[in-house]
Structures are given as structure tokens and as C-alpha cells.
Amino acid sequence: MSTLFSPIKLGSLSLKNRIIIAPMCQYSAEDGKATDWHLIHLGGLALSGAGLLILEATAVEAIGRISPGDLGLWSDETEAALAKVLTSIRQYSAMPIAIQLGHAGRKASSQAPWHGGQLIALEDGGWQMVAPSAVPHAQAERAPLALDEAGLQRVKQAFVDAAVRAHRLGIDAIEIHAAHGYLLHQFLSPISNQRTDQYGGSMENRLRFPLEVFDAVRAAVPKDSMAVGLRLSATDWVEGGLDISQSKLFVQQLQERGCDFIHVSSGGVSPAQKIPLGPGYQVHLAEEIKQHCSIPVIAVGLITDAHQAEEIITAGKADAIAIARGILYDPHWPWHAAAQLGATVDAPKQYWRSQPRDQKNLFGDTRIGQR
User: Fold this and answer.
1) Which secondary structure element, helix H or strand E, spans residue 152, and what is its range?
2) Distance between CA atoms of 331 and 138, rounded to whole angstroms?
3) pTM listed for this prediction
4) What whole-number distance in Å separates Cα of residue 289 and Cα of residue 13?
5) Phi first, then psi: what are they for 289, rounded to 5°?
6) pLDDT per residue over 214-228, tens digit each?
7) Which residues of 262-296 are buried (b: 16+ CB within 10 A; e: fewer)?
8) Is 329 a residue of the active site?
9) Which of 38, 80, 111, 279 gets the highest tally of CB atoms within 10 A of its CB?
10) What is the tens place of the pLDDT at every residue in 238-297?
11) Catalytic pick among 27, 92, 182, 199
């Protein structure tokens, strides 16, 4: 039996297999509101047979958007727009859905990637960013404002409010975004966090605000019906930055607080990063994290082959794998992986006739007939 296609639980949430669709920003919202693009995009992914679909990084307040086109969940209007998309998808797919809640911090006010992805000037429609410290992401960029106590409380409450909205929408899980150089990662990393108060300096202090946000979100939604996990960058890939040993301490703290899963990525906080790209280049980070915790660990990063994914799970390097760009390129990646590994995968009945002649059980116990 394929280990990749064996069931797994993330807290209270049961998944049919260990393939997770990672969050992928679409930069196609309107004032934070989901659009028909999200219906098309997410609707297709929800038919892929993966175990879990995680919605893109969703801003908890307007100034927390990476770009003007980022999805948001900070108002009745953004909630209603996402509800419309989810209602349509759920008519045709029972796939569990999670949402990644985040705040871009000093990496906010950016152009969409197809417009260059750079910082938008204030006079061109950009906005003032906030961060742990008034340190810009790149030297030539304008500096963010350092969050004061009122700002910290506002951001924390924004995460809570968005979590409550997500629960009201019937979303199955929340992934708190503390990776890729965004706000919570900015607190964790000494590169971006140069505070001298209780939220800066020592590792204990740099963990404080991300842990406060996690505690507040976990307390805001019911544990028996909504899983809450976290995505982290396990290393900054910069000397003197956040490293794997510090990340292990963070994960241990999260586990003690009731975290249901950890999604292990890396990098994003500094243009000076040197990332050794290659197949599964972050899997060793997930493996190290997994050795120091007992909650499910998700590996991600250039996992593109079914046998590669199977080996990661079988060898105990991670409990699940996440794919992003790979499933954009091949929206039926889980079908093809199941065919290669001799497993069964869910497919909509409208597509049952596509089952290859030599894969009679690929979609399970199906029945097709015509006169």
C-alpha cells in the first residue's frame, strides 16, 4: 500500500491522503475580495484528488497585503466574497479546505510578480508598511514603521478576527503564516527584528509575538472542529539569521501550546539569502524538525515526482508533502501519482471516463454505462 496515499490526521481534521496543496498567491483579488478567478483556480484544484487544499496567503488587514491584489479576510465584504467561492466549490468537491492567514509586514505594498514584484511608491498607490523594527527589506527601500504596543494589539486582534471569519465560513483548518519574510517571520529573525523591548533581542523575546498570535488564534476557534497549524521558514539561509536550531525551539513551544501541524519552508527575509536549490531542497529541514516534535510535519519545496514523495513519507522524513507550482503545471498531479504508485484517488464522477484502461481501480469503485 502506498504511504503517500494513506490517511493522516492534522489535529481534528482527517485527510484521505498526504498530498497537500500549498498556498499560492494569485494576486487577483479586488480590494481583498475573492473574484471569479478564485472560483476557477480553486475549483480546479479542489477536483485534483489531493488530501487538503490550503487557500493562498490571506491578509488579516488591508496594510498586511503583499500586493494590491492579495486576498483578504478583514471585513464583511471580503468574507462574503470568499463565501460565494467556497459555496460553489463545495457543491462539487468534498476536499477539506484550509486557509493561510498572514500579514506581509515590511514586504507589503509590492507589485504583482508579472509587474516586477517591487515596492510600490506611495505616490503610485503604495502604502506605509509596518514591521518589528524600522529596517527596510532592501537597503534602497523606504523603511517600515516599527509597531508600537497599540499596533501589536491591533495586528493580533486582526488575526483573531480573521480566524473567527474563517471558522464561520466552514473552513476546516488555519495555517498561520510565519515564513517567507513576512511579519511573523520578521519577528523571529534577528535580521529584521532589532527591537530592544520584550519582543526583541533574545530568542525567547523574538518568539514572543508569534506565539501570542498563535495562542490568540487557537483560543478563538474550537479545537474539536478546526485544526490550527503554522508555516515557518526553518532557516534564513543567511549567516547570523534564524537557523534550524532556533526553529526547533519555536516548534517545541508551538507543540506545547496545542499546534496541530508544522509546514516547513525556508528563506524570504533577506535579499542576501543563498538557497541551494535542488530536488527536495527543504526536506532535510522538515526531517530535522520532525525529530524534535510529535505533531505532523509537512515538507515542501521542489517535490515533483510521485516516487520522490513516496520515499519522503516512507522514510519518515515528513508526515505529508506539499506541492505548489507543480500542481499548477499539472492540476491532476495526485491522479498521476496514484497511477504510478498503484493507489486509489478521488475524482469527480464527470471525469470517471478518463480513467486509463490499465488503471481500472484508479478512481475506486466507479460505474460507467451508456446505451
Assistant:
1) helix 149-168
2) 35
3) 0.97
4) 21
5) -60, -45
6) 999 999 999 999 999
7) bbbbbbbbbeebeeeeeebebbebbbbbbeebebb
8) no
9) 38
10) 999 999 999 999 999 999 999 999 999 999 999 999 999 999 999 999 999 999 999 999
11) 182
